[in-house]
Amino acid sequence: MSRQKHWQRETFYREVFVRDQCCRFCGDKKGPFNAHHITSRDLMPNGGYVKENGITLCEPCHLIVEKAGPEQPNILYGLIGSSYKKALAESEKLSK
């Protein structure tokens, strides 16, 4: 992994966890937590490693969200005050 990609990933995790402080799905404050990409990394420019595309989830909620249907991204974006459009715009600003 390149140094730039490593920096982007670390910044993504830090910014998502600092913003959320708990599982945004159930409110758990104990963790352990995951920084979940709302729109898949494969579908976003430069991997979507931006806080507008990330949400903190506890492990049980992460499993639930991973199995959810197509409406799931809009719900998760709403929980963090973001949208696909915002996440896309910020992701396009990342260096490759």
Task: Write up this protein.
- By secondary structure, this protein is mainly alpha-helical.
- It has one domain (3-92).
- Helix content is 46%, strand content 10%.
- The protein has helices at residues 3-20, 59-66, 72-80, 84-92; strands spanning 33-37, 54-58.
- A two-stranded antiparallel ribbon has the order 1-2.
- The radius of gyration is 13 Å and the shape is globular.
Number of domains: 1
The fraction of residues assigned to DSSP E strands is 5-15%
Task: Please count the beta strands (DSSP E, at least 2 residues each).
Answer: 2
Radius of gyration: 13 Å
- How many DSSP H or I helices? 4
pLDDT averaged residue by residue? 93
N-to-C series of helices and strands: HEEHHH
- Oligomeric state of shown chains: single chain
Structural class: mainly alpha
Q: Helices and strands in order, then pairings?
A:
Elements: H1 3-20, E1 33-37, E2 54-58, H2 59-66, H3 72-80, H4 84-92
